[in-house]
Amino acid sequence: MADANAANQVRAWFAREGRALPWRGEDVSPWGVLVSEFMLQQTPAARVIAPYLSWMERWPTPAALAAAPAGEAVRAWANLGYPRRALWLHNCATAITQQFDGQVPRDVTVLEKLPGIGPYTARAVAVFAYRAHEPVVDTNVRRVIARWHHGHSDQGSPSAQRDHADMLALMPPPAQSPEFNAAMMELGARVCTARNPLCAECPLVHTCAWRAAGYPDTGARGVAKQARYEGSDRQARGALLAVLRSASGPVTRAALDRAWPEAIQRDRALIGLIDDGLIVPLARQRFGLPA
Prior knowledge:
By secondary structure, the protein is an all-alpha fold. The chain has a domain at 233-288. It is built from 15 helices and 3 strands. Strands 1-3-2 form a 3-stranded antiparallel β-sheet. α13 (233-246) packs across α14. The longest helix has 16 residues, at 84-99. The N and C termini lie far apart (50 Å).
């Protein structure tokens, strides 16, 4: 650890200021941790709380979700966005049920082989469910490291090899590393934010390389801006999928046509949803959620 005192300060701050999110409780199962990590991908925690609680009440185990139709998972995903995650989570639950007797694996390399789980999610589940000594590096953590450790104004493009090495160099001993991982994520989400960081509230303010350098603007360093949502294909896809979510059964092509006014974009969105397995074409120009 480059600065054990700094790590202790971050952990102490987290103990005082960390949010009491439902997936952080001591009694949360590994499945509960895995579900939260799927939902938190590209979605703020505040939007995840209610769907997470409903999901866990309905499907408290991988076997419970695997026994339900995939379309019910898509329906329950509601407005979390990126609904393919619902299908991946359903596929993941099925694999866990069939291959691991319903128990979420604890090994990172095994977790990475499950549907919908990449290097970040695998490490997050191993750390927060099983207290593994692994680096968990999301956008927020990369931003904290970029500023505090490297003196850069932003985190730049992700690189798993570089980002994991950076985090490992800063991590405390194994017994303390899960809390440190969570604390760094919380710090980036709530204090060391992309815009208007709250430096006066940061436990690392006195050792921050970016602050010591006078807060220089080191440029975006390859960070791509997210495309506008309004009027996008993503919005069109969401509008079509919302029709099916709100229906008790299959819907007609006419119902989908009414959901989005621009015909070419609507057709493109519909084809994409069918290709992704989120909408299933049926006989007589009807469409349904996957079975």
